[in-house]
Amino acid sequence: MLSESLKAKFDRVIARYPLKRSAIVPLLLFAQDEIGYVSDEAVDEIARRVEVHPIEVIEDIGYYSMLRRQPVGKHNFQVCTNISCLLRGGEEIFEHCSKKLGLAHKQTAPDGKFSLEEVECLGACCGAPAMQVNYDYYENLTPEKLDALIERLRKS
Question: Which end of the chain is more exposed for a tag (fewer CB within 10 A), N or C?
């Protein structure tokens, strides 16, 4: 269920755009931040507010990799394996993370604590290999740095 404060935020955001449909992605991100993913209810509410069919909102979700239709773990690991990160060990970092968490690409732990995905680019090429956990960036990763991070997050 979407909160009243989120619905009010939707109204404020939509008012900033000359075309209501231009607000779809920001609204999706706000909904996802509140409930952890983009629910059917959120799709329907956004479509109604920006005056499009729900399928048009769903198409945007499919296009943007940061939007998701299913819940992810409390700590969502997104490991970059694009060219800069790949050349500096991104694939090894992903494999190490996968082994350490016991998760494959786009999987969530049964307890809901962790999820893992391989992503194309985080825009942190200078700090490769890089990953993002929720909205926090981690750069110049090593297996040791990753192990320390996982242990710290396990305790939270």
Answer: C
